[in-house]
């Protein structure tokens, strides 16, 4: 099996274990529902940040592709950290709006950069 697939399955398993541990802690009275929700969804934000950090390190031929990966990596890294931070520290009423907005802005930056590079390539 591919190392990338094994790593992805391990991360998915880790999030599932975290969710099950949170559920057990909630049933035993060690954590409330909001804490469990913040833990699990915050882990998803850290996953987005990790993927954003790994993205520029992958080999892609062509200078344009590497530029897009670098910008996309940074935008995903930062939006993932904001996502996780929102679920860790923001009032629960605002977490979904903040987290989803951060990821949407990161995606918009990456797509906008792709379109800018495309326009520059056509102009050349």
Mind explaining what this structure looks like?
The chain has 124 residues and is mostly helical. Helix content is 85%, strand content 0%. It has 4 helices and no strands. The chain has helices spanning 3-27, 33-54, 63-89, 92-123. Helix 1 (3-27) runs antiparallel to helix 2 (33-54) and helix 3 (63-89) runs antiparallel to helix 4 (92-123). It is elongated, with a radius of gyration of 18 Å. The mean pLDDT is 85.
Structural class determined from secondary elements: mainly alpha
Count of strand segments = 0
Distance between the termini: 43 Å
Principal-axes shape call = elongated
Share of helix among residues?
A: over 70%
Beta content? under 5%
What does the main sheet amount to? none
Low-confidence stretches: none
Rg, Cα atoms, Å = 18 Å
Tally the helices.
Answer: 4
Average pLDDT, all residues:
85
| SSE succession | HHHH
Q: Quick recap of the structure?
A:
This protein has 124 residues and is an all-alpha fold. It has helices spanning 3-27, 33-54, 63-89, 92-123. Helix 3 (63-89) runs antiparallel to helix 4.
What characteristics describe this protein?
85% helix; 124 residues; single chain; mainly alpha
Helices and strands, with pairings:
Elements: H1 3-27, H2 33-54, H3 63-89, H4 92-123
């Amino acid at each position: 099996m591919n190392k990338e697939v094994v790593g992805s399955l391990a991360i998915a398993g880790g999030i599932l274990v975290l969710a099950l541990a949170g559920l057990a802690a909630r049933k035993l009275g060690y954590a409330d529902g909001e804490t469990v929700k913040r833990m699990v969804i915050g882990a998803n934000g850290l996953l987005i940040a990790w993927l954003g950090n790994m993205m520029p390190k992958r080999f892609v031929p062509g200078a344009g592709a590497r530029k897009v990966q670098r910008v996309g990596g940074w935008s995903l890294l930062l939006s993932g950290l904001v996502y996780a931070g929102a679920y860790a520290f923001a009032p629960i009423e605002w977490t979904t709006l903040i987290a989803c907005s951060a990821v949407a802005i990161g995606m918009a930056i990456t797509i906008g950069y792709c379109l800018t590079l495309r326009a520059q390539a056509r102009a050349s």
